[in-house]
Amino acid sequence: MDLLNLPQELLSYILHFADPDTLRALCLTKKRTLHAISRNFLRRKLTLRFGPNQKSTPDVFTFDPGHLAAIRSLSIVMDGYVDLGAISFSSVLTSMINIKDIRVSGGSGNFLRLIVENTKESLVMLELDGCDAEPQDFSDIVDITIRDLRLSGCHPNVRFLLGPVVVVNLEVRGPG
């Protein structure tokens, strides 16, 4: 049986478990059905890099609401200091209504709070790597529950996030 003869629902189920490299390769195929399904699943995983120019790469502010709602997994890399006043990232986060997993590398306490408060309805796993915070960054934060919280190489003050956040599974690696 040819793969393309399978029902589209079954193809979608199979591709749901594919890694990003496989999905990218399938996007290059000339088979329209595979291309369309792969592209939709590839859009579910997004990596943003904020640099010294205060812009994200790719420019997430140009995404349509449908694309933002399709994102399930988000990885954010902060290169240096990013002025949160210069970017209006909360409106983007609130549009990501189906986000389940977020990984932040190098974020500040204010940025972590922004993420937690704007994704609290759908967030399942939060992974923080090399993040820094101050105790006041988490004062008066709303109570939320996160199933998995993973801390790696974070500043000890990130522990103040645990005051208002209920965590089911906590994993700590490295200093922090």
Could you write a compact summary of the structure shown?
With 176 residues, this protein is α/β, with parallel strands linked by helices.
Strand content: 15-25%
Report the mean per-residue pLDDT as an integer: 78
Major β-sheet annotation: 7 strands, mixed
The structural domain count equals 2
Which term fits the overall shape? elongated
Describe this structure in words.
With 176 residues, the protein is an alpha/beta fold. It folds into two domains: 1-42, Monooxygenase, CATH 1.20.1280; 44-173. The chain has helices at 8-16, 20-27, 32-42, 65-70, 90-95, 109-118; strands spanning 45-50, 56-57, 73-78, 101-105, 125-129, 144-152, 165-173. The protein has a seven-stranded mixed sheet with strand order 2-1-3-4-5-6-7. The chain is elongated, with a radius of gyration of 18 Å.
Features:
176 residues; alpha/beta; Monooxygenase; 2 domains; seven-stranded mixed beta sheet; 6 helices; 7 strands
Topology summary:
Elements: H1 8-16, H2 20-27, H3 32-42, E1 45-50, E2 56-57, H4 65-70, E3 73-78, H5 90-95, E4 101-105, H6 109-118, E5 125-129, E6 144-152, E7 165-173
Parallel strand pairs: 1-3, 3-4, 4-5, 5-6, 6-7
Antiparallel strand pairs: 1-2
Helix pairs in contact: 1-3, 2-3
